[in-house]
Amino acid sequence: MNSTYKNILILTGAGISAESGLSTFRSSNGLWNNHRVEDVASIEGFECNPALVHDFYNELKIEVAKAKPNAAHLAITKLQQEYPGQVSIATQNVDTLHEKAGNQNVYHIHGQINQAVCLNCGQVMETWGDVDTETTCPHCHIMGMMKPNIVFFGENLLCMDKVEELLRRCDLFISIGTSGVVYPAAGFVQTAKYYGADTIEFTLETTANNFLFDKHIYGKAGETFPPFVDELIKKAKKEA
Questions:
Q1: Any idea which residues carry the catalytic annotation?
Q2: DSSP readout, the chain?
Q3: Which end of the chain is more exposed for a tag (fewer CB within 10 A), N or C?
Q4: Mean pLDDT per segment of 10 residues, for the chain of length 240 residues?
Q5: What does the alpha-carbon distance between residue 16 and residue 12 come to, in Å, rounded to a whole number?
Q6: Which CATH class, in words, describes the domain spanning 1-22+69-110+157-240?
Q7: Is there a contact between 75 and 229 (Cβ–Cβ < 8 Å)?
Q8: Hey, do 1-22+69-110+157-240 and 23-66+113-150 end up sharing a CATH topology, with the first three levels equal?
Q9: Is the whole model's pTM more than 0.85, yes or no?
Q10: Structural domain boundaries of the chain?
């Protein structure tokens, strides 16, 4: 493995947010916070019952707004501030814990809980307040066309041009708290590896794409990632 990296890309999933008390949403019985996934995370569900979907995400917003970043999020901030290379984040999480921790260069590929997108004009509105079927778009002034800016099943991921560029350029790819089963994000490690990056995963248990990583660090990311960051910074300073 290299010692000093020029471009580090970190992929984060539900596992990093779980340590801040946010549920991973999808339980073993396939429900998301006691709702069928089809009802609250699909375009069909939204078209069928937009009021239910808005209520679901409005409630989730309250939970997310209260959550605080944990040691793993803060370690990313330290890495970005003290490491000589570029550090970027692609996150599958719709919460804003990365931003709360002061992380920079964050790309939300599954959208953000505190945003709504207008289906009429495409403009994104940022708000921690409730959005519902009577909300008027502040840009085109049409009522009832706002959708939570969350990537529903079957929709294209966001920021993918930028993320694909980062995957091609990175020389270290780190995965934190992802299961390795949700595509296309589960395929990111393969792309990074193809372009020559070292690959490391921080995980509680063996993941579906375990074999693609050069190194596995098991345990809670809040406990395992900060010492890893300290070591990375120490090595870089020695070589400077």
A1: 110
A2: --SS-SEEEEEE-HHHHHTTT---SB-TTSEETTEEHHHHSBHHHHHH-HHHHHHHHHHHHHHHHH----HHHHHHHHHHHH-SSEEEEEE---S-HHHHTT--SEEETTEEEEEEEETTT--EEE-SS---TTPBPTTT--BT-EEEEE--BTSPPSSHHHHHHHHHH-SEEEEES--S-STTGGGHHHHHHHTT-EEEEEESS--TTGGG-SEEEES-HHHHHHHHHHHHHHHHHHH-
A3: C
A4: 86 92 59 70 92 94 94 98 96 96 97 96 96 96 96 91 97 91 83 96 83 92 97 90
A5: 7
A6: alpha beta
A7: yes
A8: no
A9: yes
A10: 1-22+69-110+157-240, 23-66+113-150
Write down the CATH superfamily of domain 23-66+113-150. SIR2/SIRT2 'Small Domain' (3.30.1600.10)
Instruction: Report residue 122 as tokens.
Output: 């495409």
In this predicted structure, what is the pLDDT of residue 26? 53
